[in-house]
Amino acid sequence: MRVNCSSSxxxxxxxxxxxxxxxxxxxxxxxxxxxxxxxxMMGLLMFSLGCSVEFRKLxxxxxxxxxxxxxxxxxxGLMPLxxxxxxxxxxxxxxxxxAVLVMGCxxxxxxxxxxxxxxxxxxxxxxxxxxxxxxxxLGMMPLCLYLYTLSWNLEQNLTIPYQNIGITLVCxxxxxxxxxxxxxxxxxxxxxxxxxxxxxxxxxxxVVAVAGVVLxxxxxxxxxxxxxISFIFPLIGHVTGFxxxxxxxxxxxxxRTISLETGAQNIQMCVTMLQLSFTAKQLVQMLSFxxxxxLFQLLDGFLIxxxxxxxxxxxKNEHRKKDTGCAEGCHKKKSTSLKETGAFLExxxxxxxxxxxxxxxxxxxxxxxxx
Length: 371
What we know:
This is Solute carrier family 10 member 6 isoform X4. This protein is mainly α. It contains 15 helices and 2 strands. It has a two-stranded parallel sheet. Helix 2 packs parallel to helix 8, helix 7 (123-148) crosses helix 11 and helix 8 runs antiparallel to helix 9 (187-215).
């Protein structure tokens, strides 16, 4: 197999061979509207998430990139290896195996930034990891694909979508940079923008999930094996990413962030690469996997967020019960002390008068008054 590292414009011949089958045809106007709306919403979302990033913390991650290094190891070490092992273990067809491997070699997607915000992860690390993995994909994607397909003896060239990677970088860095600036100049207003961005993020995820199914519903097939892989693949990414971060002594906040970054792949980049590299007939067997992976990726993300919210609520209830029990215990202890003091005074007042007892009674009375 040879990895074609030319630009996307030089490889249009691969994507235009033959007419698209009925299942893959979409209306141009609907697809254009979906693309424009998604791009605008994604830009607004990244701008709002950028409002949660502090330049000082961001610079600290860049100066001491331990978290970034662990994330890149997960992204281009664990994920391609997992994809290769899944393709071999399930004995996939060549076209399906390539789709799984391409997905494993893609950089992290921006969807991880949304879920990281919802689980109170390290947003500075999340956005930095997404940006760094996208930059690293310029070299790591062709390298990983070349290494893992040496034993497959494939003749089909794979086109790395450099233009798509560049567009992703621009759409990611420019809105985030504006968000960081707004957070620096107007910190109060940035909190409001951040709350609005969380709502926009939820709407965007629903729109992408529904529109992705509607626009390419004809590419779905009944291959249970491929659906099973698309279900377990992101789960393996989340679990292995979390464990590796834990083994490298990252904080719990960073562990959650790296876990979400590892399991969330750039679906659009995978689809673009497949479209540039294979014919329409071959795409029928391939496109069902990235679509299914994207949906299960959303489902896994929502489940992780729900589990984290339940965990936080349980901790809050336990702290509340502990505080209530402590308050009741302190109140009982104080009441017992007052009763004992009152009994002591009553006993002393019954004794014969003396100057020493008068001083003692006066002192105890002052203590009671203060209490």
